[in-house]
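Milestone 3.1: sequence recovery, worked example.
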């Protein structure tokens, strides 16, 4: 008998008879014991039944009259999928990281009301060192010194395929806000396909946390100024709260003004535009509230 056997990673179809047969055979050869097929059948039946369970039905209570809740008012609806989207040079990742730092520390900012919660940043585009640099630039001001930073997780596979690992991370670190950077890499398959949006939002729903997804726009939308999330229309339809990010045109300027425009909000009336000014001072990046209508 092999001591402490470790199986290589593999895909297993809980409803496929061939998967159960092949795994049972492999376990018998590897561990040297028989009787795996009935155990696998029982395990598969249990998992399939558990995955199909729904919550206990409750009657809708018209007397609760609950006000919408926000993790950051008015930018992030609590417990809902939120999306910020815009051109590739509009400081979206810096903005998301800054908002994550505010939430991680319950730090207030002019024009925003912030609740404290643990934050996880799921990144498909960059690396740990890059985000450490970004955080250091954002936190050079004295009021931001010594702050606790969000958790950072480098990602490779689409979110639905990484669900068990992400769920474990959420449970272990008590994460309440997930930042996803970015949609094109985190969603499965072709983002122009409706199924990509369905699987992505189904994964977020299973995780059951407030989410902020960073998304892009297409070249056609940039030309026509439509400002739509790149991909299937269902990426917009299934989101509960979306903000379009528009930035000042001069990308070489030490000052960048971005405006966030609330294009959709299901839980309340849409919010007024919100602006941020990024001032690059070389060794630090200063963020200030700004009028988003400034040119």
């Amino acid at each position: 008998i092999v001591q402490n056997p470790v199986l290589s990673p593999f895909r297993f179809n809980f409803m496929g008879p061939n998967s159960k047969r092949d795994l049972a055979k492999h376990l018998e050869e590897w561990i040297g014991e028989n009787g795996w097929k009935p155990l696998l059948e029982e395990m598969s039946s249990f998992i399939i039944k558990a995955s199909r369970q729904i919550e206990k039905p409750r009657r809708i209570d018209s007397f609760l009259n609950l006000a919408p809740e926000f993790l950051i008012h008015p930018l992030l609806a609590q417990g809902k999928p939120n999306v910020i989207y815009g051109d590739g040079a509009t400081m979206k990742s810096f903005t998301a990281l800054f908002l994550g730092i505010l939430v991680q520390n319950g730090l207030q900012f002019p024009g925003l009301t912030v609740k404290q919660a643990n934050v996880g940043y799921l990144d498909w585009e960059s690396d740990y060192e890059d985000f450490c640099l970004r955080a250091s630039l954002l936190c050079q001001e004295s009021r931001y010194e010594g702050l606790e930073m969000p958790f950072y997780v480098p990602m490779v596979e689409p979110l639905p395929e990484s669900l068990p690992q992400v769920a474990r991370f959420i449970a272990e670190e008590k994460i309440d806000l997930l930042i996803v950077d970015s949609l094109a890499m985190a969603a499965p398959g072709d983002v122009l396909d409706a199924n990509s949006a369905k699987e992505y939002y189904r994964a977020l729903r299973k995780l059951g946390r407030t989410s902020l997804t960073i998304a892009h726009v297409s070249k056609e939308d940039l030309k026509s100024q439509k400002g739509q999330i790149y991909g299937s229309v269902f990426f917009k339809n299934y989101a509960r709260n979306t903000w379009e990010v528009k930035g000042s045109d001069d990308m070489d300027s030490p000052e960048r003004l971005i405006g966030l425009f609330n294009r959709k909000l299901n839980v309340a009336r849409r919010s007024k535009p919100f602006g941020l000014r990024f001032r690059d001072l070389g060794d630090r990046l200063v963020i200030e509230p700004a009028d988003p209508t400034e040119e």
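The chain has nine helices and twelve strands. The first strand starts at residue 70 and ends at 73.
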